[in-house]
Design brief:
It is built from four helices and nine strands. The chain is α+β, with helices and mostly antiparallel strands and about 180 residues long. The protein folds into two domains: about 60 residues; about 110 residues, Beta Barrel (Lipocalin), CATH 2.40.128.280. It has an eight-stranded antiparallel barrel with strand order 1-3-4-5-6-7-8-9. The longest helix is centred in the N-terminal third of the chain and has 28 residues. The protein starts with a helix and ends in a 9-residue tail after the last strand.
Length: about 180
C-alpha cells in the first residue's frame, strides 16, 4: 500500500519525468530542421500547456490543506516511532501512555492519559497548552509552559496517522489509538 508521503514523492517523480520527456522531445525537434518549420508552432502551444498542467499538479499535490489537517488532529494518539535527525529509529510496540489532543479555535490542549482495561482513560497529570500557527506555509503547534517553549510542525495527518517534527529534527509518528476490545464473540 502506498502511503500519502509516498504518493507525493511518486507525483513529483512523474512530473519530473514528464518534464525530462518534454525536454527530449524539444531537442529531437530542434535536430530535425524540417520539423521546426512545419510542426513546432503547433507543438509549442501543446508542450507549454502540458508543462503548465504538470507544474500545477506538482504544486497542488505536495501539501495537505491546513483546515483539513486540523479536522484530523483531535483525538487519542499512540506513539509508533521516533526518528532522530541522524536517522536512528526507535519503535514503540506498545505504549502505556496515550496523547489526547483537543482543539478549540487556534488553541489546543495535549493531555497524557493511560488507557484502562474498561475502555476509559486515566489522566496522568501531564497537560500541555499550545497555540496553532497556520499563517505561513506550514501548520505549527507552539507549546509554552513555565519551564520550556517548543514547536512542532505537523508534516502529515490523516484519520489514522499523525507525523510531527520538532526544531531538533526529531520526527514523531503516531497512530490513532484504538480502545482495548476484549469481546470474544
Amino acid at each position: 500500500m502506498i502511503k500519502i508521503s509516498d504518493k507525493k514523492i511518486l507525483l513529483k517523480l512523474i512530473a519530473f519525468e514528464l518534464l525530462i520527456n518534454v525536454f527530449i522531445i524539444l531537442l529531437t525537434i530542434y535536430k530535425i530542421k524540417i520539423a521546426t518549420i512545419l510542426i513546432l508552432p503547433k507543438l509549442k502551444n501543446t508542450l507549454f500547456n502540458l508543462i503548465l498542467v504538470s507544474l500545477l499538479i506538482l504544486a497542488t499535490s505536495c501539501s495537505q490543506n491546513k483546515e483539513e489537517m486540523l479536522k484530523n488532529i483531535p483525538g487519542y494518539w499512540e506513539i509508533e516511532s521516533v526518528k532522530n535527525e541522524d536517522g536512528a529509529l526507535k519503535e514503540f510496540k506498545i505504549s502505556t501512555t496515550i496523547d489526547f489532543i483537543e482543539l478549540n479555535g487556534n488553541k489546543g490542549l495535549r493531555t497524557k492519559v493511560n488507557p484502562q482495561l474498561d475502555g476509559t482513560f486515566k489522566n496522568n497529570g501531564t497537560t500541555e497548552n499550545f497555540s496553532i500557527d497556520k499563517s505561513g506555509e506550514k501548520l505549527v503547534l507552539n507549546y509554552d509552559n513555565t519551564l520550556d517553549q517548543w514547536s512542532e510542525e505537523v508534516i502529515e495527518v490523516t484519520k489514522t496517522s499523525l507525523i510531527v517534527t520538532n526544531a531538533a529534527g526529531k520526527e514523531y509518528r503516531y497512530k490513532r489509538f484504538e480502545k482495548f476490545d476484549f469481546n470474544l464473540e
